[in-house]
Amino acid sequence: MTFIEWMAVLGVLLLILALASAYLRWLPVTTSLIYLGFGVPIGELGIGLWEMDFLLIASWMEHLTEVAVLVSLFISGLKLRMPLRHPAWKSAYVLAGPVMLACIAGVALLCHHLFGLSWGVSVLIGAILAPTDPVLASLVQVNNARDDDRVRYGLSGEAGFNDGTAFPFVVFGLLLIEQETLAAGWVAEWALHRVLWAVPAGLLLGFLLGKLVGRLAIYLRARHADTAMSPNDSLALALIALAYVGAELIGAWGFLAVFAAGLGLRHAEMRAAHQSETPSEELVVGVVPHAAEGGMAPRDLSLDAGEIAKPRVAAGVLLGDILAFGGQIERALEVLLVTLLGVLVSVHWDWRAVPLALALFLVIRPLCVLLLMPRRYLDRPQQLLAGWFGIRGIGSLYYLSYAITHGLLPSETDDLIPLVLSVVALSILIHGLSTQPLLSRYERRRGSTAMPDATEGKG
Length: 459
Hints:
single chain; mainly alpha; 17 helices
């Protein structure tokens, strides 16, 4: 498929989405499912515009999916405003830690005993499919910086943390394939460098960088009253790049650093707002594009130079611009990558993915949440909901591309590629059909009962 053909396909899809948006929002499906459904007929099962093997595009898919995940992780961190000791965070820590590790083990056991795959490939598949996706799971994550719902907050924090904490186990799977057996030497070295150092170092570096840069940016914008003219989108891209590169230079995980950089920038805003419960961006909700300058200008003309010079207002415009810019980038990359997944899955479809996906979605993930999540963090209905919304997506596509470009032989990818692509597609299909009905039911339940997390731990 040529570049011109791809441009035509994406142009038609974007035009349909733009013209039919008023109707699509009433459909009980996610937009990701629409993109996937558009991509499948383009591939081998449809008109056959593309029949390319994933092995041939893995190198540039790695970078494209990496950019999508990095932007989404940064924006996810920026949306999480509760203090790190707030009760809403506790479910995120459990989901991204014990639950994720148990899911890796469950998928690895299933792949080894059901499909007869080697332990190395089985662990690698488990690690690739373990993390929930920060891009495609946006519908079930926090709506805004005020949202402290335990389920939404837990899923948002999980998506931010586990895209980095799953990486050590992707590397572990690759090492196990290479070494063929467990040995104390390489396992100890992996644990020391890839877990004990890389995880906390990435989080600390990203958080400090985001907090320091955020404070400096807010100070300069308030001092010089140039908030309306400042290129805040450039600041976001710079912070993502510096956090990622800095983490790579010290041997830490870049994904965790970028997520933590978003958290650090949000904490800089909280400091400027003097820990107010009202997010600063809500003070400037009328921010719109300024055509003449190419920047952002407040619609509310009452925000004169004196008000813009206030640190909290400067922080509000800064974060409002970044959130809007990040949302646009996320949507554009989601359209491209999920459509591409639809094309690829028609080439690499594997029926073995059906029992694997059903086991992961209906048994392994829900059971791990029920067994490992304390009831004081999530009640039983919330546990079931969090167990179901383990959406797989673009993060798994990145790890698949990474594994292929880092030492796997073509023969070792015969099972890996079809299983991963098919499970991700099934996740988009099954979760895409169930997300909105389940969320609507959950919101009705929240509205009719007094939720303990609505008031607990505030301040």
